[in-house]
Amino acid sequence: MKFLAPLFLLWGLSFSSFADNLPQHIDINYSIKTGIGQGELSESVKITQEENSHRYNITSEAQAVGIMKIIKPGSITRNSQGFIIENGLRPTLFSDQRGNSNPSFARFDWKNNFITLHHEGEEIEKPLPTGTQDRLSLSYSFMFTSLPEEYLDVHITDGRGLELTRYTIQEEKLNTPIGRLNTIVLTKQPAKNNKAKRKIWLAPSYYMLPVRIVATEEDGLEIEKMVSEIKIQHTNNHQESSKNTLGNQ
Question: What number is the average pLDDT over the span 183-196?
């Protein structure tokens, strides 16, 4: 991997030194393509400091447009919140709400090492493996920690279940609406009795933010998210925007 070595130098900084330069607010807009139509998605990341710790709050809202709005009305809203630690993100609560249906929840009890899943009126408790991420926090966790060289094994929850997933790691140049970018690509490996697929493109020039995600859901629906705009706000009110040359290769 040709550019992973300098990447590790950049993202392998001590957490204390990196935390001093954390963005305060990030807004990302995506266009969505599916087999049944198109949509738009906006995600925001808020980072706050409380005494000697940092908290994060990620909100994701997808809205159908055009014919897809007729076929699948309503929005999909996800939220992940928790703490930023030396090894990435440590979620404490994740929610996933689709349209007017009751949301699914995952509550993380790191002190007692168990996770509580709420889905369709049922509540299940399971052991909580070290490093567990939710579906939303996984895509942003690499802002705060280095990636392994070849593959990543991580437990992931969507509020419905908990799955051990392996992602392979590669590099790729990607053409996007905000420019041609060097990216790190995480590819989910097939699992037994699970047809879901997922690839995540992370951009080192944009704090390792996800700039493209391609997924096949268990029901067979294919979804592509492609970044259309990024805005990054720092504590000193300096703002970086994907509309200029930042990160274009």
Answer: 84
C-alpha to C-alpha distance for 24 and 40, rounded to whole angstroms: 24
| Cβ atoms 201, 172 nearer than 8 A | yes
Q: Dihedral angle at the C-alpha atoms of 213, 217, 223, 228, nearest 10 degrees?
A: -40
Instruction: Render the burial of 63-90: b for 16+ CB within 10 Å, e for the rest.
Output: bbeeebeeebeebbbbbbbbebeeebbb
Q: How confident is the model at residue 243 (pLDDT cuts 50, 70, 90)?
A: low
Report residue 103: phi and psi, to 5°: -70, 155
Cβ-based neighbour number of residue 214 at 10 Å:
17
Give the integer Cα–Cα distance in Å for 202 and 52. Answer: 28
Look up the pTM and report it: 0.84
pLDDT at 219: 64
Average pLDDT, the chain: 83
| Dist. CA 118–CA 161, nearest whole Å | 9
Hey, what's the torsion of the CAs at 55, 82, 211, 130, to 10 degrees?
Answer: 130
Element of type H or E holding 4: helix 4-11
Task: Using the structure block, give the residue that is written with the tokens 């996770």.
Answer: 115
53-97: pLDDT as tens digits:
889 999 999 876 654 554 455 678 999 999 999 888 999 999 998
Bridge-based pairing of strands 133-134 and 122-127 is unpaired
Q: Report yes or no: 187 and 199 within 8 Å, Cβ to Cβ.
A: yes
